[in-house]
Amino acid sequence: MDIKITPTPISGSIEGIASKSFAHRALICACLAKGKSEIKINTSSADIEATVDCLRNLGAEIEKNGVIYTVTPIGALPEKVKIDCGESGSTIRFLLPVICALGTETEIYGSGRLPERPLSPLKEELIRMGAKISDSFPLNVSGRISAGEFTLRGDVSSQFVTGLLMALSYLGGGVINLLPPVQSRPYIDITLEVLRTFGADIKEENNTFYINSTHLSGCNFSVEADWSNSAFPLCMGAEVTGLNPVSTQGDKEIINVLENMGAKIAQNSGSFKADLSSLHGCRIDASDIPDAVPVIAAVAATAEGETVIFNGERLRIKESDRIMTTVSMIRSLGGDITETDDGMIIVGKPFLTGGETDSFNDHRIAMAAAVASLKCKSDVVIRHAEAVNKSYPAFFEDFNKLGGKAHVM
Fold it and tell me: What domains can be seen in the chain, in order of their start residue?
C-alpha cells in the first residue's frame, strides 16, 4: 500500500490505542496462570495477534468478544508445536524462555527482519540451563530449563529479561543477574507491574531479580493506552485522550522531550495536547526511548537550530536499521540530517520540500513520515505504508479523522 499525503493542518482529538507492551505481557501471563483471565484490549495489531496465535498453538484457549480476550491457560502440552511470530520481536523474545520453561518441542518461524535480530546472549543462557535451540530459522527448541540462576547483559534487550521473568514465574522461582548498564529499563518495569498483578512475588536488589516460589493466578486486566503510538498524533499537535500520566511506559517521556524543545503541553486528567508552534533543537538521550526516535526526528526536522540524538545504538537492530532509515526518510523529504554511530544530528528548517519516501517495512518510519509530511511544501508519497499494521492498523484512518489528507494510491 502506497499512501499520498497532501499537507494540511491537523486538529482534533483521538483516543490512545492499546499498549502493545502491556498486551503482550498480560496475554502471556494469563496463559501461564492458574484459572481464567479476562484481558481488555481496546485495539489490536499484527504483533498482538501474532502473540495470540502462538499462545493458542501452545495449548491456551483464547476467545475474543469485542475488546475482551477470555483466556483459559495452557493445560496439557502438545508433544510438538509450530508457532509463527511474524515480524514481532517481542513475541519471539518473550516466548522463547517460556517455551523452554514449558519443555514442549517447538518449531519457531518468523518473517521480515525477525530471523536477523539477535537472540544472544539469552539463547546461550537457556542452553546452559537445559534447553536445546538450533542455530538457524526455523528455530528448533526442545528440552526444559531449570529454575536456577541466570545472568544477562542489561544493554542488549530488555525483552530478554521480560521473557525470563515470565518463564521463572511459571517455574516457581529463580534468579536473574542483570549486568549494568541497563537500558530500556521502563520496559522491565512494565513486566514487573504485569507479573505482580497476576500474583508474582519478585524482589529486586542491585540489578538482581529474585523470583520467589509462588504461581501466577488468573485475573481481570485492562490494558492501558499506548504512549509509544500516541507520540505520533501528539507530535502532529492533536489531542490524545485516555493516557495514563503516571504510566510505567518509558515513551511517556515524549512529553518531556517536546517541552525541552519548547512545546507548551496542555494536560487534563488523561488527555494531552502539545502546542508545537515554537520549537527549537536540543540534545536527546535515546537509551530508554528508542521507539520514539523516528517521530522526534520528524519534529526536529522543522525545529529551529540543531537537535542531537545519541545513545541509540540499539536502533540498528529494530524492524529496520532505524538510524539509517530515519535519516534516509527525513533526507528524502528535504531535511538536513546526518547519521552518527549512535544516532543523528538534525538541523531544522522552516519547511521540508516533500517528495517520495519509503517505510522500509518499519511501522514507526511510516508513521514518522506522515508526521513530517505536515510541514512539507508539496505532497508526500510513502511507499509500503501498510507497515503500520504491525502496531497501529488504523493510523491513517485516525490521521484523516484529525483533518489529514492521506489517500491510498
Answer: 3-17+225-408 (3.65.10.10), 20-219 (3.65.10.10)
**Positive or negative: CA dihedral 324, 326, 330, 336:** negative
Instruction: Answer yes or no: 285 catalytic.
Output: no
Q: What are phi and psi of 90, to 5 degrees?
A: -60, -45
Catalytic hit among 251, 291, 358, 362: 291
Residue 305: partners with Cβ closer than 8 Å, 6 or more residues away: 280, 281, 347, 348
Mean pLDDT of 388-394: 95
Residue 131 has pLDDT above 80, yes or no: yes
Average pLDDT across the chain, whole number: 95
**Distance set, CA 178 to CA 141, 156, 209, 289 (Å):** 24, 11, 8, 20
Distances (CA, A) of 193 to 162, 218, 287: 11, 15, 21
pTM over 0.85: yes
Mean pLDDT of 58-72: 97
Give the mean pLDDT of 3-32: 97
CB count within 10 Å of CB 187 equals: 23
Helix, strand, coil percentages in the chain from 3-state DSSP, rounded to 5:
35, 25, 35
DSSP character at residue 296: H
Distance between terminal CA atoms of the chain? 7
Asked if residues 406 and 379 have their Cβ atoms less than 8 Å apart, the reply is no
For the beta carbon of residue 168, count every other beta carbon within 10 angstroms: 29
Question: Residue 14 is placed in which grid cell?
Answer: 483521538
Tens of pLDDT, residue by residue over 292-330, are 999 999 999 999 999 999 999 989 988 889 999 999 999
Cell 483533518 -> residue: 403
Distance CA 335, CA 369 (A): 12
Strand partners, 359: none
C-alpha to C-alpha distance for 394 and 42, rounded to whole angstroms? 12
Q: What is the DSSP letter of 225?
A: B
